[in-house]
Structures are given as structure tokens and as C-alpha cells.
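Co-fold these.
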Amino acid sequence: MQRRKFLSLTLGALVLAVAPASVRAEDYRKLKPTVWTAHTVDDAIKNLYGTTTTIEKGVKLSTPDVASSGGAVPVTFSTKIPAKTVSVFQDANPEAAVIVYSVTKYDITDYKIHIKMGKPGTITVVVEGLDGKLYSAKKSLDVALGGCEG
Amino acid sequence: MGTRVKAKLKKGIIKLTIQPSHAMTTYNQAEKKTGNKDDANFITHLSGTINGETVFDMSTSQFLSKNPIFKLKLNGETFKKKEKIIVTWLDRKGNSEAITKKIK
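Predicted complex below.
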């Protein structure tokens, strides 16, 4: 019995160790659960990358200056930096994290999403380069109608 | 339910638009509506494959809009028109949908 338990444990550990290498894409909700519960942008970035030091260049970010509806604010962002992950945060909602892209080799890092914003705030896009450095861009915007309801 | 997927290959770049119809209920919205935060439901993961290979992958949160829209671009040099892209999403309650679409 002891031996069987040991075997299954090692097998389990092996599967765990092999899985991330064979599957390049990663589920950041399972991998880094604390990112999604962090209330401030700094905390979320720190929980995801271990640091909040970013270089503010190389990332393009555009949003309307005034969003007509907080229910769907269009956010466009792109970077030419070879990236491992791209993530988006904001400070207008109870939690900060919006999305984390696990960049594949096919990915041309050029994205557009619609996000909810309960009130005016700042959107932060962080690019984790393959060089291990973090690059970021920030944009503050006004929300005419807080359509987010939370 | 239903998810709109558009994949267009032009000059070696695949332009992708994905729009799942999903309520994307936040914790606060759920609490207001039913008094239970746990009723919140939103898409948590979205990914796509072509020929079995993952081409994009994202982990998402409650703060995407209702019926969220995702636009992205992929390097399509190694892919051809009429090849199939499979887009899969998963939400907090465990519902999922997989949509197969031909690249145009």
C-alpha cells in the first residue's frame, strides 16, 4: 500500500512537472489566483510578476478620452516587443485585473477588448518581454455614464 | 449562447474577432441581483487552436463587457485559407463552448 501510494505520488508529480513544458499556454487564473483578487493595480502586478518596476515605453495604448458608457469601454493596445505575457489592469473596479494574455509564437501582440469601468480611472497595460523586463503604458479616462453597476 | 467568430487571412496576417454572447456578471452585480456573490459568472479562459496548435490564449476576468469582444492578430504565414480555427471558452460556472470556423 505504502509503495503504491508513493508510486502514484511520483507519477502525479511527474505529470505536473511535464505539463507546463509541453503546453506553452498557461491558465493564469489557476497559476496565479491572487492576481485576480488584488484590489489595487500595484498589488495585482506584483502578484503576477513579483515586482512593480516597469519601463514606460514600447507599449501602445489607446482608449477614448471620455467613454460614453462604462459598460463597454473600447481599449486597444499593441507592442512590438517580443513578449511572454501581456496584461491589462484598471483602478475603477473593486478588483484590478482584467485580462492576461499568454503570448504564443503566432501572436502579433495587437489587441482590442471592451471593458467595464464603474467610474473614471486609469488603465494600465503591462508587457512582460522575453528579455524578462516589464514594459508598461498608462492612460486615464473619464466615464460619462458609469454603466458598470459594480 | 452563441459565439461569433471571424477569422480573415490577408497578407500573411489572420485578423480574428471573437464575440461570445455572455452576461459576464460581476460579483457585485450578482450580489445586487440575487444577494449571493457566488452567482457571479463570467468567462475565465479563452483560447484558440489551428491544426491542434495553440495560437492564442487568455485568462480573463469579470471586468470585460457584457457580450465581450476580443480582437487580435496572428501571424498567418504558415496557415492557409479554409483551414479550421477552433475557439474555446470556459466560464466560472464550468460552462464551455467550442466553435469551429474556417479561415477566410
